[in-house]
Amino acid sequence: MKHFDEAATRAPLGFDRLVPALRAAFAAGAQVPPRHVHAIDTTAGASGKGTVLIMPAWSDAGFLGIKTINIFPGNSERGLPGLHATYVLYDARTGVPLAMMDGNEITARRTAAASALGASFLARADARRLLVLGTGRIARMLPAAHASVRPIDELWVWNHRPEGAQALAAQWRAEGWNARAATDLEAAVRQADIVSCATLATSPLVRGEWLAPGSHLDLIGSFTPAMREADARCFDGALTWVDTEEALQKSGDLLDAMAAGTLRAEEVQGTLAMLCRGEHPGRTNDAGRTVFKAVGSALEDLAAATLVWQSGDVI
């Protein structure tokens, strides 16, 4: 079994390749069973509470992949990332293990790429001002991902720890971006063309009355009913899309909106697969608001892992 370390996993996953690969994968489809979710509660108290996800998928292309992802929000107190993952790729015809890959890189890059893929259908064609909520691994990748599909030339970043936003804005400026930290979240949301939330928040951060006409709200951080990044009014009057139908059961954002009556399940416009297959054009005018809610799909992991395997750059 071959081993792709962090650098070897990252190298083939530039967004100019990964976003089109996800688009092709969603159009083609794959077998994606429901993820297994397990709560971990150790004697370490609140800082020892976490979630383990087990996410399998296989396709007619002959690959089977299984990702194990451990999410421990309390790790920030230890100076550690909140997410750790491994990915194993198999031959779907024989079950023979082919490779172990860095699951953190696959998860972060495919999540950012799915965010950009959604925006490629749902954000205005001239969207240029991106506001990112969060400063973690995925949040750091969002400018490059969105710039692969939209003419992004202005970045704002907000974080519940202002010093984190300041540091990330400085890093982006060093990389050549026109980037600033936002201290007034409401004002930043009101000015943004795309608001992309990549946090582990359990209480709403974005309020619907802040969102500008024609804006696109991208919600990719929360993935359980207990997590939420947007209040129920964010969905009122907006056209809402999901990455997969599983989002309707897993997303605290959607569940809250449906309970409040600002969204009905039958009003959800469709999934990424429908967009990628050309069954719906996505945004049809510049004035309306759009929302994309993603909880992640093992199909995305499999598409990314297949790109890595086909690159042949192994150690």
TrEMBL record:
InterPro entries: NAD(P)-bd_dom_sf, ODC_Mu_crystall, ODC_N. Signal peptide: none annotated. GO terms for biological process: carboxylic acid metabolic process. It comes from the Bacteria. Pfam families: OCD_Mu_crystall. One of its GO terms (cellular component) is cytoplasm. This is Ornithine cyclodeaminase family protein. It comes from Variovorax guangxiensis.
